[in-house]
Specification:
single chain; alpha/beta; 4-stranded parallel sheet; about 15% strand
Length: about 190
Amino acid sequence: ITCKGAAFQTQVLDWLHLYKRHGLEFELIHAFDYKDLFAFSDFRKQKAFLKKCSDLYKGFLVFLPSRRFLYIFNSLAIYLKLLRYLHRYDEVIIFSRGIIGKEIALLRKRFSKKVVFYYDARGAGAEENKYSANKVCDFSLRRYRMIADTYYLEYKSIDAADKVFVVSNVLKKYFQDTYGMKDKSFVLYPCL
C-alpha cells in the first residue's frame, strides 16, 4: 500500500495510534518495492510524509521480488532491521500486507518462537492477477509465471502466518479451499 492518501491513514496509521492509546507499542517500518526507487523523488516524498504524520515511523526497507533466491536478501534486510528487537524482547510481531511468507520462514529458522507473523490479506492476489491478464488478453508465459509465483507466495504467506486477517468470509473460504488451510486461524474484519 502506498503511504499517500486516506487508505494508509485509515487502514494503517489510525490502527497503530489506537493500539498505542491502549498501551500497545508498535514501530512502523515501511516496506517499499524496489521499483519505488526508480521514482526517487516520489520515494523521498513518501518517506517525508511518513516522518511528518507519525512518531511511530522508525525506518524503511526496500524489498526485491520474493521469487527464486531473492527472498533471502529480503529476509536479511528484515533480520538486520529487527535485530535489536529480537534480542531485547520475548517476541517480535510482524504485521504485513506483503506476501513475505518465505522471508518469515527463513527468519524463524534463526529466531524460532520470537517471530510472530500476522498476514493482512486484502484480497486474492493471484486471482486479481489472473483477472487482469484476461482483461487485457495477456496470455504470455511471463504473465503465467507471475500468476503462478503469486499463488505460491500467497500460499507461503498464509502458511507462515500465525493469524490471517481477511476482509470477508468469502476471502476466508477462498483461502481455505484454494490452499487447504482449514485449520488456519483467520481474523475477520470487514473493510468499511
